[in-house]
C-alpha cells in the first residue's frame, strides 16, 4: 500500500508540474502575441473584424434557429396526416411500362408533374376499359380541352379536365357529392368519359361523337376539334406502343368554314347562339397544343344538352 501511495503521489506531482509549465507557456505566448499585435495595428484590426463577424454570424444563426422552431411549431398545429388522401398523385414507377411511358410523355409535353398525371393515366385506363372508351382517347380529350388543368373553365361554364358542362350534368355529379366535385380531377374524368361515351353512341361514330362532345352537332364544321383530338390520340398510341414521339409534335390548326349569308333572315331555331369568330376553335377552355394561343371559343353545347 505504501508503494501505491508513493506512486500516486509522484503521478499527481508530475501532473501539477506539467500543468504549471503549460500554463506558464500559454501565458508567455499570450504576452508575446499581445506585444506583437501592439506593434501591428493592421493585424489587430483584422482579427477584431473577424471575431466580430463570427459573433454576428452566430447571433444570426441563433435567431434563425429560433424562427425555424416557431415556424415548425405553427405548422405542427396545422398538421393533417390524412391530407395525403386528397392528393391526386401516384408513383410513376408503380405503373406498367405502357402507362408509365404515356405518363412521362404527357408530363413533358404539357409541363406538368408526372405524379398527378400518373394517377390520371391509371384512371383513364381503368374507367376507359370499364366504359368501353379507349384510354388514349380519354387522355387526348383532356389534353385538347384543358391542357391537363383541373381548374380550367370556359366562358360557357364547361369545367375541369374534360370541360364537362357542370350545370347540365349536375345529376351525374350528385353521386359524387355535388357540382363542386367537377374540380376533383378523378371525378371530372369519370363524368367526362360517361358524357363522351354517350356522345359517341348517339352520333354513331367517333368523329361524330367528338362533334357532339364539343357542342357542334348542329354545325357543319367543328373547327378542327375532332382532328386535334384524333391527332393527339395517335401520338399517345405510338407512345404506348413504345415508339419515340417528340414532345413538341404539332396538332392540326383549327379551321372555321365561312358561312354564306342567307337571302332572307332565318327564323329562330334551336341553333347555337353564336358561331365562333374567325380564327378561333371550338374547344374547351384551354388548348394543349399551343399555350400561347388565346382561349378558344366554345359554342353552346346543344348536343350535349340534349343528352341530359
How are the elements arranged and paired?
Elements: H1 2-38, H2 41-77, H3 97-110, H4 114-131, H5 135-146, E1 158-159, E2 164-165, H6 170-174, H7 185-203, H8 206-213, H9 225-240, H10 302-307
Antiparallel strand pairs: 1-2
Major β-sheet strand ordering: 1-2
- Tell me the radius of gyration: 36 Å
Helical proportion, percent range: 55-70%
Task: Quote the average pLDDT.
Answer: 81
The topology string of helices and strands comes to HHHHHEEHHHHH
Query: Which oligomerization state do the chains in this entry correspond to?
Result: single chain
Number of strands: 2
The stretches of 5 or more residues where confidence is low (pLDDT under 50) are 258-308
Structural class per helix/strand content?
A: mainly alpha
Write down the overall geometry.
Answer: elongated
DSSP strand (E) fraction? under 5%
Q: What is the rounded distance between the termini? A: 107 Å
What's the total helix number? 10
Main pleated-sheet profile: 2 strands, antiparallel
Amino acid at each position: 500500500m505504501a508503494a501505491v501511495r508513493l506512486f500516486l503521489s509522484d503521478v499527481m506531482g508530475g501532473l501539477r508540474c506539467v500543468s504549471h509549465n503549460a500554463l506558464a507557456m500559454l501565458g508567455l505566448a499570450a504576452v508575446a502575441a499581445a506585444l506583437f499585435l501592439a506593434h501591428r495595428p493592421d493585424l489587430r484590426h483584422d482579427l477584431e473584424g473577424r471575431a466580430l463577424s463570427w459573433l454576428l454570424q452566430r447571433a444570426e444563426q441563433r435567431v434563425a434557429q429560433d424562427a425555424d422552431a416557431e415556424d415548425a411549431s405553427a405548422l405542427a398545429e396545422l398538421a393533417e396526416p390524412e391530407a395525403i388522401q386528397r392528393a391526386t398523385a401516384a408513383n410513376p414507377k408503380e405503373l406498367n411500362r405502357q402507362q408509365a411511358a404515356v405518363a412521362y410523355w404527357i408530363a413533358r409535353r404539357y409541363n406538368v408533374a408526372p405524379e398527378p398525371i400518373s394517377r390520371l393515366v391509371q384512371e383513364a385506363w381503368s374507367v376507359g376499359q370499364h366504359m368501353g372508351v379507349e384510354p388514349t382517347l380519354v387522355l387526348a380529350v383532356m389534353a385538347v380541352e384543358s391542357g391537363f388543368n383541373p381548374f380550367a373553365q370556359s366562358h360557357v361554364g364547361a369545367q375541369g379536365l374534360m370541360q364537362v358542362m357542370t350545370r347540365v350534368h349536375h345529376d351525374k355529379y350528385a353521386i359524387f357529392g355535388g357540382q363542386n366535385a367537377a374540380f376533383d380531377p378523378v371525378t371530372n374524368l369519370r363524368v367526362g368519359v360517361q358524357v363522351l361515351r354517350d356522345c359517341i353512341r348517339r352520333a354513331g361514330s367517333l368523329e361524330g361523337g367528338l362533334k357532339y362532345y364539343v357542342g357542334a352537332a348542329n354545325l357543319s364544321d367543328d373547327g378542327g376539334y375532332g382532328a386535334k383530338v384524333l391527332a393527339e390520340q395517335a401520338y399517345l398510341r405510338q407512345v404506348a406502343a413504345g415508339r419515340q414521339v417528340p414532345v413538341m409534335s404539332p396538332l392540326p390548326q383549327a379551321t372555321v368554314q365561312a358561312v354564306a349569308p342567307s337571302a332572307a333572315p332565318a327564323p329562330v331555331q334551336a341553333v347555337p347562339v353564336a358561331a365562333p369568330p374567325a380564327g378561333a376553335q371550338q374547344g374547351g377552355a384551354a388548348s394543349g397544343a399551343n399555350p400561347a394561343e388565346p382561349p378558344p371559343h366554345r359554342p353552346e353545347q346543344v348536343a350535349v344538352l340534349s343528352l341530359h
